[in-house]
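[step 3/7] inverse_fold.run input=structure_tokens len=368
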């Protein structure tokens, strides 16, 4: 549609719309100029893993050795390596729903079985609801806070409950913390930091894609017990080898960043979050929980669907909604169905404020 000249407001974007910080870009260029362009250790250079260890200590109160850290091609690759290293065919993996679309696919690629757990109002997973889904085959619980697609941030109590459940049942937690820096109230809490035993049961996943607007650099990492890290590194050794050497040198600069670029991005996202919430409160057909993190809001379209009285011939209600919204109002959103909730849509506010105002105006008019 854009190619045909339509002016689309794009609320479907999954990456920050900011430039990568200048100091990181300079370091990237100097890595090439200094011929740092060869293979490195598979799990990442010692210097980079040292910088990650320092970051985990500083920001997350977690002590890891470089041998407990593996750097991969983005958090997505770290997640997949973590699953390949831990899931045996037939193993069950608990995933709170709504979830990031990729988790169930990766679980299935490893021969595992995704087991979804509803989170209900507020989108916070509860340990007692998860407990009912635990069987002898439960191997992993995946959590994601701040969350994509809901923007929910799990409170400490929920994290402790999940950690206790995992410890009690000898389950490994995969904690995807890629949106750690985009959080609007207080500081991020890592589930691994809730206790020594929790750390022993957790694979913490993070990276630079969202925090430093470095999605194209492809840098993610996992921090976990050494035996899992070693298995992940061996898998990576025989599949992709190390990530780009150039990215690794730039990543050290980002991790040690003393500029306030991350804080600036967060403040811009906060203003946009407040604007989206304000604008949406003026659209009675949409009901949304105020997001505390990431750059998404996940409103319910239930009221619209009731009116529409969508019949059984429609494969997905949220897809139908998104398609009509695009065709009639030229606003792109992501349907909730692939995230596990067909009665929601995902709106990304990684766009300028003018686009938020215009997009919301179009949605309001469309729904009227
Ligand atoms: N985890 C979540 C929850 C995400 O939303 C994303 C990207 O959208 C990723 C992981 C992947 O991050 P990366 O680009 O570092 O692979």
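[step 3/7] decode complete -> sequence:
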């Amino acid at each position: 549609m854009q190619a045909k000249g339509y002016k689309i407001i794009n609320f479907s974007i999954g990456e920050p719309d900011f430039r990568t910080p200048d100091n990181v870009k300079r370091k990237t260029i100097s890595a090439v100029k200094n011929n740092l362009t060869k293979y490195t250790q598979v799990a990442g250079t010692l210097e980079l893993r040292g910088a990650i260890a320092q970051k985990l200590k500083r920001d997350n109160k977690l002590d890891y050795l470089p041998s407990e850290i593996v750097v991969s091609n983005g958090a997505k690759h770290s997640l997949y390596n973590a699953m390949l290293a831990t899931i045996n065919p037939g193993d069950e993996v608990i995933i709170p729903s709504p979830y990031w679309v990729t988790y169930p696919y990766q679980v299935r690629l490893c021969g595992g079985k995704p087991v979804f757990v509803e989170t209900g109002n507020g989108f916070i997973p509860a340990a007692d609801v998860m407990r009912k889904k635990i069987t002898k085959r439960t191997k992993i619980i995946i959590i994601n806070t701040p969350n994509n697609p809901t923007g929910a941030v799990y409170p400490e109590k929920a994290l402790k409950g999940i950690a206790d459940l995992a410890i009690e049942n000898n389950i490994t937690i995969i904690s995807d913390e890629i949106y750690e820096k985009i959080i609007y109230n207080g500081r991020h809490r890592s589930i691994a930091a809730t206790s020594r035993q929790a750390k022993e049961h957790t694979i913490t996943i993070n990276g630079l894609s969202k925090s430093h607007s470095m999605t194209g650099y492809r840098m993610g990492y996992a921090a976990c017990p050494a035996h899992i890290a070693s298995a992940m590194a061996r898998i990576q050794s025989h599949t992709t080898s190390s990530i780009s050497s150039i990215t690794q040198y730039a990543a050290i600069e980002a991790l040690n960043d003393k500029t306030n670029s991350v804080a600036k991005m967060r403040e811009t996202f906060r203003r946009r979050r407040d604007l989206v919430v304000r604008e949406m409160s003026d659209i009675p057909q949409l009901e949304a929980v105020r997001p505390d993190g990431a750059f998404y809001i996940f409103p319910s379209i239930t009221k619209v669907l009731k009116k529409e009285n969508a019949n059984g011939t429609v494969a997905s209600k949220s897809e139908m909604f998104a398609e009509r919204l695009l065709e009639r109002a030229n606003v792109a959103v992501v349907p909730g169905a692939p995230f596990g909730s067909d009665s929601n849509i995902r709106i990304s506010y990684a766009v300028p404020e003018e686009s938020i105002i215009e997009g919301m105006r179009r949605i309001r008019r469309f729904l009227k």
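[step 4/7] annotate
The chain has a mean pLDDT of 96.
DSSP finds 13 helices and twelve strands in the chain.
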